[in-house]
Amino acid sequence: MVGDELRSVMRRVPAAVAVVTVDVGGQRAGLTVASLVSLSLEPPLVGFAIRRDAALHELLREAQELAVSVLAAGQEHIAQHFARGVPPIALWERISLRDQPEGPPQLEGAVAWLRCRLTDELPTGDHTFFVAAVETAEPGPPDARPLVFHGQAYAAL
What we know:
The chain is an alpha+beta fold. The chain is built from three helices and ten strands. 16% of the residues lie in helices and 44% in strands. Strand 4 and strand 5 form a beta hairpin.
């Protein structure tokens, strides 16, 4: 089956691990993604895919504004925590957030942070591919090492 072969091939392609977050009227949600890509520098655009049955999917459409925290080595527990797709009641307990006055939450200790606004969405199989305009991009510490997903496991570069 081509789908199984594709899965086998894509497991060999390392991908950055990020958490996309929103805040809709005080209701926060986040989801781990390994599909974050830079689409354009002028204008600055990024894209990522979200399963249609993920709790974040409809909240993202409603929020229009989002944050992306690109995870660092050692943040595997955060990646696993937000990978569930359906938020547990205590989703934000014991999760360190950056101190910011407003907007979607950003995770402390990441290698980079983006604040974005949705500009487009494209149905893609059982996912939706979201395109977002980057309003701010902030790198973390220069010596921070990114977390990647490769071979069905997290690894540090």
